[in-house]
Amino acid sequence: MTRLLIVGPPGAGKGTQASRIAEAYGIPAISTGDIFRANIKNETELGKQVKAIVDAGDYVPDSLTNALVESRIAEGDAQGGFLLDGYPRTLEQLRFLDELLAAQGTGLDAVIQLVADQEEIVQRLRRRAVEEGRSDDTEEAIRHRQEVYRRETEPLLSAFAERGQLIEVDGIGAVDAVTDRVLGALAGRGLVAV
Ligand code: ADP
Fold it and tell me: Predicted confidence band at 38 (pLDDT cuts at 50, 70, 90)?
């Protein structure tokens, strides 16, 4: 039973690392960004509600995001644990998740913070804009997402650190090398992969 979070600024490589770490632990990677993008692509009601917000690089309202995560982690595949990618991103989301897990008598085992410098990130996101064609990877939206991250999400890091949950990992380098660093750090905390 492993419950993990991965946090880091836009472009730090969270999504890539999340799927590898989740696979190593045999748990689902739950990315709120992926869920929103899938809904936008399929033109669902939720997708229509959030498209303009996501394209602009703003955060979807907490009430919507919290409800989405609550129902996702109630699904069968998440009963043995999960890795949340891109959630919680605001203090209100953190409060909600804490209450949700506490009500189940559980909590988070660790929070992985992927650290990457600004220059590297901007280059990666430019590459991704070409490769994946994400509509929120324009120069303007990228810069805005980084600002929103600094304002809304960075304050969560000190909360995780105070609880002794935070593991800082250098996100620069080959994808495999970063995965090895993360798995090594988790194993160092007694969280052993399957
Ligand atoms: P990135 O880390 O590059 O910004 P994500 O895929 O994590 O990419 O998120 C893409 C977008 O989805 C965000 O800019 C935001 O609009 C929306 N989003 C994702 N997760 C959340 C969240 N927890 N709260 C609010 N909005 C979110």
Answer: very high
Give the residue numbers marked as catalytic: 14, 89, 128, 134, 145
Question: Average pLDDT, whole number, for the chain?
Answer: 95
**Ligand 1 atom nearest to 14, measured from its CA:** 2
**pLDDT at residue 44 in the model:** 98
SS3 content of the chain, % helix, strand, coil (to 5): 60, 15, 30
**Closest ligand 1 atom, residue 33 Cα:** 6
The 3-state DSSP class for residue 172 equals coil
Pocket test for ligand 1, best of 14, 51, 59 (most atoms within 8 A of CB): 59
Tell me the pairing of strands 110-115 and 2-7.
parallel
Q: Would you tell me the crossing angle of helices 139-148 and 118-132 to the nearest 10 degrees? A: 130
Reading the block at residue 64, the tokens are 């919507």
pLDDT in tens, 49-58: 999 999 999 9
